[in-house]
Amino acid sequence: VDRSSLSRGALIVFEGLDRSGKTSQSARLVSFLKEKGVPVEAWRFPDRSTRVGQMISAYLANESQLDDRTIHLLFSANRWEKRVQMESKLRSGTSLVVDRYSYSGVAFSSAKGLDIDWCKAPEVGLIAPDLVLFLDVPPERAAERGGYGTERYEQLEFQKKVAQYYSMLRDPTWEIVDGCLTVEGIEEKLRGLVSECIDTCQKGKPVTNLWP
Length: 212
Ligand code: TMP
Description:
It comes from Asparagus officinalis. By secondary structure, the chain is of the alpha/beta class.
């Protein structure tokens, strides 16, 4: 028996508007899994630690200006530079909980007016998530939450457009979770969904690529 194809980790992605609760829920989920002894790492995109990530970070802070297609490709490159490591982690049995992924890439850039298929193209061949947890919060509610920061994109009208594009990207790997429930209520739902997904991957579900 080729053990290398068995017992792989799961690729679990959080998506949602800015201020939808992704970052705190992903942190809570990762500590829960660690306590249960599940090998897991918390990842996020953009990964601001790389050189590409630093260019993205400067753009988001309005410290640099970039053409819309250029920044789109940088976000994509930032995922590509992590792909090999991502695959080896998954194959060695480590699950990854990732705060934002290709869906953010496509939804945010399409919301600026770029063609959706053009936006998807550079994402083709990245690893497909096993589960996408979409924290569903109406843009108005998200905007009320402690206010937006000063980063680019953190504006109500723009977030409304992003929400529309997210809804076009939904596929069967998505679970829509009501992000207006209590923190504990959301956490409970996520735990159930994730445990099931990790089981399926352990049983040898193949690793596939975007778009499914
Ligand atoms: P963050 O707040 O989760 O660090 O994300 C920073 C911003 O970048 C957020 O407004 C969403 C946006 N974004 C994109 O436009 N394209 C992408 O590919 C990703 C990952 C994020």
